[in-house]
Every structure is written in C-alpha cells, then in structure tokens.
Amino acid sequence: MREAIVLGALCLGLALSACKDQQSRATAEDVAARVNGVEITIAEVDRLLEQQLRASAQQGQAPPTPAELAAARLQILENLITQQALYQKAERLGLLPTEEEITQGIQQFKRERGLSEEGFQRTLRELGQTEEQFRREIRRQLAIKKLFDREVTPRITVTDREIEDFYNANKAQFVERRGFALARIVVTPEKDNVSDDAIGAEAAERKIREIYEQLRRGADFATVAARRSEDPLTAARGGNWGFFPETAEQFPEALRSRLLAMREGDITEPIRIGNAWLILKLVRRIQRDRELTLDEVRAQIAEELRDQREQVLQTAVTRLALAESRVENLLARRMLENPANFGGLRPITLPTPPAGSPR
Which CATH architecture has domain 177-291? Predict the structure, then answer.
C-alpha cells in the first residue's frame, strides 16, 4: 500500500488561508480513504482498476458503464482498506517482515511465474508499479500472512471423528471417474521468458520436434519438461498437468481416441492446438468409476476442513482489525454527495476490446 504523507503549512492571513483551503480541497480529491490516518489514494485505486479493465478487454468483455466503474472502484477500495487495517495490526504486533524476507518473497514470485529479470521488469511495467512499490506490496502481503499464521493457524484442529463424519456424509463426491492423469510439454511461438524460448512459428515447431526426438531416444519426460517446457506452472511440476475425465470438453474427439489407445507411460506425437504445440504423456489411466476409501481421501478431507476453518477465522481476524481501525471512506462520501457523476472522478482510459467482442 502506498502511504502518502500530506504536508500542510499554517497560514496566518485571510489570503493565505484561502490559498490553503484551495490546496486542501485539491489534495483531498486525491485521497480515497484513510485508515488510522494512513491515506489510500485514488491513483492506487485506479491503477488496480485499470489492471482489471485490461484483463476484461483481453477476454472480449464489453466496456463497463460509468455505474459499473464506480462500483468497481468502491470494491477495490474496500479491499485496500481491509489490507491496510490488517497490515497495521501486524505492525502493532511486531510482525513486519525483514528486508531479507521481502527479497526472498520477490524471488519466489519470479520463480513461480518463470520470470527472468527482463520478464519481471516487464511485469512491473504492466502492473504500473516501480520496483520499490512492488517491494512495499510484498511487505504488506508477508505481514498479513504472518498475522494470520499467528492468530489463525494455531487455532485450527481437525479430529479423526470429524473426518469420518464428513466422509460418511459426502461419499458421492469421493468417486474416481474414468479418465487420464496427464503430463505435458508446451512450446509457443510467443515470448515466454524461459531459457530455451522459441520465438516465432517456425522456431516453435522446430523446438517441439527436437523435444519429441529427445523423448523417443529415452530422455526422462519430467526432466525435459522442467528444462524445456514453456509453461512455467506445469514445468515446475515436471510437466504434471492433472487428472481429466474421459468426457473432458477440452479434448477434441481425435485426441480422446488417441489417449484411449495409449498405455500408461506412452507419449503423443507433437500436437498443435491453436498457436501452441504440446506433447502429452499418459501418466495413469482410470478405466472405471471407483468409490474411494476413507484412507485414500483422509488427507484430502482434513485439508478441506482446515481450509474451511481457516477462511472463517481469517474473516474473524479481518473483522476485528477493521473494528479496531478508524476508517474514513472519502470516495464513498463524495459519491453520495455528488451521485450525478459519482464524485467527479477522473475518467478511466478503457482498453479496446478485440474485434467481434460484445459492446
């Protein structure tokens, strides 16, 4: 959260007082809210709003109406207020991260997304942030995590009896359906910021066929996926993509038939889907529906029950942090005072939706 400090001066004459009033009004219009005196600016709200608008435009969604924009601003501001209240509570409890922990958090962000330093800097530009602003954001996230780790995690317990009761009440959801556990290697012609990146259609096809020959000569699929796949999420898991039922809609009929004819451990030839090239490995095949036993799903149920309780307790901590805070929602107040234009907010530059999208 960007913490703005408002600097004022004491004016001793009427003329100076009038000047100060005008400057104060201008400054106030830049402030969306205050949490215990710490300001959240309209610029920060609009930066996050513009990110949402870009994502919506890429999905072909219609541009929002002024009322929808106003509602989105209020929702974003509510989230920022909540995060600021939690951050301040963590600060009061001495739970702020060290500079080393923040640096480690940034490195983890890069690893999880497979970002080189160049890719990281481009991501910052796309987010509209400087590296220092991003560092402050990581500090806030880590502080809130430490707060939840202290206030929530030690209070979560799940007993064997609770696990058994949940299993007996929800047996229908613990059925292993016919389908495939798959791993994949992905190559795209776009720039993906991996060490072995293929740029352009010809380079992508050449690379996927090189990988296919490696695998045919006996190279380990997981090792090759980790080193050469251009999908960082599955590459980090040795190519593991997950389990898909036989009826999965994302599989064309020809591919489904191919998978049905494969044995566990087999790989496909390079497959082109859209702009991307894929090689799939059949890790495991489930040939008939089977009811899972309690022992097979015990850990899954325990995790689900813990997640449910964690969400409830995190909400409780959040409500208390907000109750302990002095919150001034200036944006909401201005909207009420001037509903004709929702508080006179500056216009947002709306991204252009792709051709053919609804308007």
Answer: Roll (3.10)
Tokens found for residue 119:
């890719």
d(CA 306, CA 312): 10
List the chain domain ranges.
14-92+314-337, 177-291
Q: For the chain, which residues score pLDDT lower than 50? A: 1-26, 356-359
> How far, in Å, CA of 240 to CA of 181, rounded?
8
Instruction: Give the model confidence (pLDDT) of 249-288 as tens digits.
Output: 778 888 888 888 999 999 999 999 888 899 999 999 888 8
284-301 pLDDT per residue, tens? 988 888 899 999 999 999
C-alpha angle 72-84-308 in degrees, rounded to nearest 5: 80
End-to-end alpha carbon distance in the chain:
34
**Pair of tokens at residue 309:** 């309780």
Q: In the prediction, which pLDDT does 300 show?
A: 94
Answer whether 0.85 is exceeded by the pTM: no
pLDDT at 21: 40
Return the amino acid letter for 13: G
